Backbone:
């Protein structure tokens, strides 16, 4: 139980982009790995095209919210989210952002044009999974340092298989989108 | 069963209700409470449990259904958001006196912030006013555990019990241990007792006296006694926390190295606060910090202003959500630690807006065309966002669009030039609280136009069915109520239905209604087009109309300002409008919006 993982991640985007879905996938992956987990989500009016923000805390925590300067990383589905939410980040935090160009942030930032890739793959709603796939790619580089997510590409594939059980079409499309992001090279 | 599962707070509450044999659960949707009943209906359906779960027409009706269930000896529950409890406050005050037979839990979810509400009111204060006990969970897991304690309290003392989660409990997910479902074998059995269940004022006094005796015992009930969380800590100072502030404080006290130094007490039951606890903390500590959301319920009961620091002396903010960074600051100040002042520049996010292709946008555009100088009263729902379009001037509470329209009519009645008054209300909100107001406008012959935005669902809260839907919380087939027949039944003589997507015809229809209202009396237009979210049948998915912007676009931004569709974006380089194909739903309404006719079908 618990192992030694303690990670706090902020995920943000705009209503309808699937912020809550990837938050859920990561939280399920944490449970699958025997970790304790907390997430905090935006529902209601803000979901109508407004900024949607979720926090996920894996490990030994009791509060569902992340304090300023405590987050290990940010997954941003819109480039503007970096400005909005970078105050949550630690000095050496990582950022994975859906953007055509690498942002100038002072953090360890990596960009992928998930809009273009998902459109090209014929699945324009899968921007969230393309970006998550991209973020998981960096996990391999993590060697005791804070370089990427607490879980692996295979973990998320397993979670997807459970979550989308009985809907093969959706599962295949989702795994493809995840792979699209995973295989792309970083900018 | 018996495994750890990732659960939303609201799901954990639903699971708790079913593990404890709740036989009737009712609700009216409202953020942050909506997923309680939705999850309960889903879990009971998956496990074929003999439970009645339903969306009621409003919170008062929901309360009364569940309450009668407990009078018949069953375990029942009603859930709602905090402002919903205002609507159900009439039965709540009375039910406190008459008490419960089977266990009865009133779940009222508060929204400090507020994130998705009109007010930051504290339901615990409503429990205090009604004189019923209230439990304040700090997490999804604790919310689930508290269901069992709430039923025990309710049945031991024959009293309704409130569970008061906040947004951060309702909309957090946590790994939660599940158990097997409770027994549903209890038979309904109503024992007639008119002196109690139909008490006249003389008996009410007796019931009130009994209620006070119950509260005295509840203020000494063992299972809800405040808990000292850090057994080893000794100091002349103490911190008292409840709800999610307890969860934040535990983590922060550890991070600051205060955990072994200053005693922390978590209050499980903020009202009635345990009497022994009050006297022991007042005797045991010189300085006491109380952190709770959103009003000083615990603090007022301790009532020792020489020792207590809290909301009443400005140490803790009286408004807004108490974020963990604010708690960190308070704890540092209280413990005499030096802390770097954490200043976070909060960046404004995107403001919420109606979805691309939302039929409400088309309705608002028509209303502004038909009565450009009108007063626009509106109501609670997605369509509140019509304020971005300048088509919403007032939003008060559920159903007020119609009664406020009447008020404006009477206010301007004797003026030389009377403004057109156009009220907008959603279908679910109309059922909830609009009907009595509409009857009043007929009786008073109020000259106003009502547009019922009938998108066939309760959209804002997650597409729950309305009384017109013909199906229930688990998707089961139900009777449906026809809105047009209802409007006519209220006595309205002008009532016509139109499709806002058919822009030209619909603008004509609203104009006709506005002219009728000017001369004759109330006119109702039912704007019927299904919500884009959650549409299932193919028929509902109308043929997509693809649009493009021609060179006739002069970059005047009329479409951006007056239509504000997320799919119409302004290209700053080219200085003209453009269509975002990822967002466009293909409704085609914008073709009628551009004054230069620069938006055309492909």
Residues:
């Amino acid at each position: 139980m618990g192992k030694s993982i303690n990670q706090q991640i902020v995920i943000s985007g705009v209503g309808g982009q699937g912020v809550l879905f990837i938050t859920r996938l990561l939280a399920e992956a944490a449970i699958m790995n025997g970790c304790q987990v907390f997430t905090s989500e935006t529902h209601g009016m803000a979901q109508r095209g407004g900024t949607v923000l979720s926090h996920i805390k894996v490990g030994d925590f009791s509060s569902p919210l992340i304090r300023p300067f405590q987050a290990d990383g940010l997954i941003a589905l819109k480039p503007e989210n970096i400005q909005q939410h970078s105050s949550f980040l630690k000095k050496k935090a990582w950022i994975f952002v859906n953007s055509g160009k690498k942002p100038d942030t002072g953090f360890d930032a990596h960009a992928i044009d998930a809009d273009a890739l998902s459109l090209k793959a014929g699945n324009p709603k899968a921007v969230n999974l393309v970006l998550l796939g991209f973020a998981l790619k960096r996990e391999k580089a993590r060697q005791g340092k804070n370089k990427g997510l607490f879980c692996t590409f295979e973990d998320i594939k397993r979670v997807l298989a459970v979550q989308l059980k009985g809907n093969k079409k959706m599962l295949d499309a989702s795994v493809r989108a995840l792979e699209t992001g995973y295989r792309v090279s970083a900018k | 069963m018996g495994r750890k599962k990732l659960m939303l707070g609201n799901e954990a509450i639903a699971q708790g209700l079913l593990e404890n044999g709740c036989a009737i659960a009712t609700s009216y949707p409202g953020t942050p409470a909506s997923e309680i009943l939705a999850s309960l209906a889903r879990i009971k359906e998956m496990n074929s449990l003999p439970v009645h779960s339903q969306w009621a027409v409003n919170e008062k009706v929901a309360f009364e259904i569940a309450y009668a269930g407990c009078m018949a000896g069953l375990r029942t529950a009603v859930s709602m958001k905090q402002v919903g409890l205002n609507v159900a406050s009439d039965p709540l005050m009375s039910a406190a006196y008459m008490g419960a037979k089977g266990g009865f839990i009133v779940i009222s979810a508060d929204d400090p912030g507020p994130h998705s509400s009109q007010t930051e009111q504290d339901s615990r204060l409503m429990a205090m006013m009604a004189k019923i006990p209230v439990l304040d969970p700090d997490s999804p897991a604790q919310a689930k555990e508290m269901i069992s304690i709430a039923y025990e309290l309710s049945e031991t003392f024959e009293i309704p019990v409130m569970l008061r989660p906040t947004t951060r409990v309702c909309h957090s997910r946590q790994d939660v241990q599940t158990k097997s479902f409770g027994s549903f074998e209890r038979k309904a059995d109503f024992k007639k007792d008119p002196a109690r269940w139909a008490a006249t004022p003389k008996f009410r006094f007796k019931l009130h006296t009994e209620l006070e005796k119950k509260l005295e015992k509840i203020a000494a009930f063992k299972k809800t006694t405040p808990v000292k969380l850090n057994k080893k800590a000794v100091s002349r100072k103490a911190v008292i926390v409840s709800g999610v502030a307890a969860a934040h404080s535990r983590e922060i006290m550890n991070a600051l190295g205060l955990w072994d130094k200053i005693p922390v007490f978590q209050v499980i039951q903020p009202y009635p606060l345990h009497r022994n606890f009050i006297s022991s903390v007042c005797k045991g500590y010189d300085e006491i910090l109380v952190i709770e959301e959103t009003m000083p319920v615990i603090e007022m009961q301790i009532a020792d202003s020489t020792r207590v620091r809290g909301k009443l002396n400005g140490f803790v903010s009286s408004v807004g959500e108490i974020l963990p960074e604010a708690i960190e600051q308070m704890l540092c100040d209280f413990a005499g630690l030096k802390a770097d002042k954490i200043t976070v520049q909060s960046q404004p996010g995107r403001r919420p807006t109606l979805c691309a292709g939302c039929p409400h946008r088309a309705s608002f555009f028509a209303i502004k065309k038909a009565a450009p100088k009108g007063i626009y009263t509106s109501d609670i729902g997605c369509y509140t966002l019509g304020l971005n379009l300048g088509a919403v001037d007032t939003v008060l509470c559920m159903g007020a669009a119609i009664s406020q329209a009447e008020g404006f009519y009477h206010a301007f009645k004797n003026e030389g030039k009377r403004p057109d008054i156009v009220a907008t209300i959603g279908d679910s909100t109309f059922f909830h609280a609009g009907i009595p107001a509409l009857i009043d406008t007929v009786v008073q012959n109020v000259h106003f136009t009502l547009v019922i935005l009938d998108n066939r669902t309760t959209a804002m809260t997650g597409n729950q069915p309305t009384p017109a839907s013909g199906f229930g919380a688990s998707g089961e087939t139900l009777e449906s109520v026809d809105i047009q027949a209802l409007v006519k039944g209220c006595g309205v003589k002008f009532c016509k239905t139109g499709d806002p997507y058919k822009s030209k015809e619909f603008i004509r229809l609203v104009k006709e209604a506005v002219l009728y209202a000017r001369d004759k009396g109330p006119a109702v237009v039912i704007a019927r087009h299904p919500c884009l979210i959650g549409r299932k049948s193919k028929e509902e998915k109308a043929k997509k109309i693809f649009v493009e912007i021609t060179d006739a676009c002069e970059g005047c931004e009329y479409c951006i300002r007056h239509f504000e569709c997320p799919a119409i974006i302004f290209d700053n380089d080219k200085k003209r409008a453009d269509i975002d194909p990822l967002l466009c739903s293909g409704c085609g309404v914008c073709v009628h919006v551009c004054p230069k006719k620069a938006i055309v079908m492909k």
